Amino acid sequence: MIKNSIVVLLTLLIVGCNSSQKKEETPREELVLTLSEAEKIIDLPLHCIEIEYPNKLGQVLGSDADLKTPKELRPIFYGCFDWHSSVHGYWSIVELMKHFPELNEKHNIKARLNTLITDENAQIELAFFEGPNNKNFERTYGWAWLFQLHGALLTWEDVDAQRWARTIEPLANLLIERYETYLPKLNYPIRTGTHDNTAFGLSLTLDYARLIQNKQLEELIINTAQRLYSKDNNCNLAFEPSGHDFLSPCLEEARLMGKVLHTKEYKTWLNNFLPDLFQPNFTLEVGKVSDRTDGHLVHLDGLNFSRARCLLEISNKIPELSYLKTVANNHFNASFNNITNDDYMGSHWLGTFALYTLLEK
């Protein structure tokens, strides 16, 4: 009797342990932004927006007078390794404070931002872009993230946020003008998996144009997307990713066209462009990072986040492709636990891409 009881007890313990282990290993079924995740993500840009070095400046020097420190050149967006990462780091902070006001109370964030986002500093940032040697600086990736930041501030009913929006608005307006000059001259899209990707920049900027109700910019982007992509077909996902991609050229184009075309038209286009997506057993291997201290190789964590965002948007546009959400979740879960402050090469930017995915409903 005692022997049988011991066997039963051991069996229950084994089953319990296996159940517990299974629960830990099971990926979340739905991507939802929680306070716990917000705390994890916001620590990353809060850590780096005022870290000046290491820094990748990326500008063209016109003379010795241009040899200045990052903070002298760009007194708002000087941290987080490079200009665009600083910009979308601010975007992450703003979006998270909008969703979770208690974060400001804990971290005293507004007090910090009030010393950085000033009219004086914004004028210096603007002057840099107005210089003769850097008119194309951060085209179009950094421009698109500046639009996202400005839009996030405009839609936040907060006194400080509204002041910050007014402060950076002249720079946003200048970059709109640059976009309007650039796009008519772009004969071919840039199909890389990194910053220059045309579809990614157009997608973020289209969202911004619609937010601020700039019909001229909206129509320009819609017409440009149709001109560059409407005849595309049979994009080969088997060729992705390249070794340091953080964007999927195929999926970024697919999600952009989902914003441009009506649902019926989009379904036809997508079936020609990525027919494999219409197979219920569609799978896509997640990007694998071999060295997270390597600033290029760690891009593949970002690829997992950006792919997830694309797949979510596509499935929301065409509900019959809802199974793509499982593929999206697998990609997100493969990388989310890897974003930490342990190494600056990933921590200075990956939180933004995780948040951008979590904000897609």
List keywords for this structure.
17 helices; single chain; globular; disordered N terminus; 361 residues; mainly alpha
Q: With helices defined by DSSP (H or I, 4 residues minimum), what is the helix count?
A: 17
Largest sheet composition: none
Tally the beta strands. Answer: 0
Radius of gyration: 22 Å
Helix residue percentage? 55-70%
What does the overall shape look like? globular
Broad structural category: mainly alpha
Q: State the end-to-end distance.
A: 56 Å
% residues in beta strands: under 5%
Mean pLDDT, to the nearest integer, reads 92
Series of H and E elements: HHHHHHHHHHHHHHHHH
Question: Ranges with pLDDT <50 over ≥5 residues?
Answer: 1-26
What does the model show?
The protein has helices at residues 2-25, 35-48, 70-73, 83-99, 102-107, 109-116, 119-130, 141-154, 159-182, 198-211, 215-229, 249-260, 263-273, 299-317, 324-336, 344-347, 350-358. Helix 2 packs antiparallel against helix 17. It is mostly helical and 361 residues long. It contains 17 helices and no strands.
Topology of helices and strands:
Elements lengths: L1 H24 L9 H14 L21 H4 L9 H17 L2 H6 L1 H8 L2 H12 L10 H14 L4 H24 L15 H14 L3 H15 L19 H12 L2 H11 L25 H19 L6 H13 L7 H4 L2 H9 L3
The gist of it:
This protein has 361 residues and is mainly alpha-helical. Helix content is 61%, strand content 0%. The protein has helices spanning 2-25, 35-48, 70-73, 83-99, 102-107, 109-116, 119-130, 141-154, 159-182, 198-211, 215-229, 249-260, 263-273, 299-317, 324-336, 344-347, 350-358.
